[in-house]
Amino acid sequence: GMRRDKCGAAAAAGFILACARAPAELTRGLRVVVELGCVRNSIGSDAYVADEVITSHAGKRVLVGNTDMEGRMVLADCLSHLRARAIQEALPRPTFLSLATLTGHAKLSYGSYAVALDTAAARAAGGVGSKL
Which are the contacts of 113, defined by CB distance < 8 A and separation ≥ 6? Predict the structure, then answer.
């Protein structure tokens, strides 16, 4: 059910808490930024409507083909926001990890398993998916 849709954000919150509680010698030089994308999937005047065109944080226009896309849109917006922040702060080599519970489409693609995937750009830069 929908109660598991919060597992990605919960894992990210747990990770940042573990980093905060870890001994300093284990986290020296490590900077961790977590952005939790939380959304309420409800019916109302602000809900997504099929065939509606909305604009993402990155300025890309997206056609709503499936109203069960709010999690993917929030994840994309979070990653776009973090990318902008990394550019603004001139971070030398940021690593982006998304922990998401995109249950519907992930389950169709991979079944009931956890998946670590790198994008082509991440693979070209050395990737992290194969190291997890």
Answer: none
Q: Which residues does 18 contact at the CB level (< 8 Å), separation at least 6?
A: none
**DSSP, residue by residue, 37-100:** -------STTS--TT-EEE-TTS-EEE-S-SS-HHHHHHHHHHHHHHHHHHHTT-SS-------
Give the contacts of 76 (CB within 8 A, at least 6 positions apart): 56, 57, 58
CA–CA separation, 57 vs 73, rounded Å? 9
Q: What is the pLDDT of residues 53-84, one digit of tens each?
A: 999 999 999 998 877 777 788 888 999 999 99
How many angstroms separate the CA atoms of 108 and 112, rounded?
9
98 in Cβ contact with 9 (< 8 Å):
no
Tokens read off for 91: 């971070």
User: Which residue, 12, 65, 64, 15, is CA-closest to 37?
Assistant: 12
Is the distance from CB of 48 to CB of 35 less than 8 angstroms? Answer: no
In sign, the C-alpha dihedral spanning 100, 75, 94, 126 is: positive
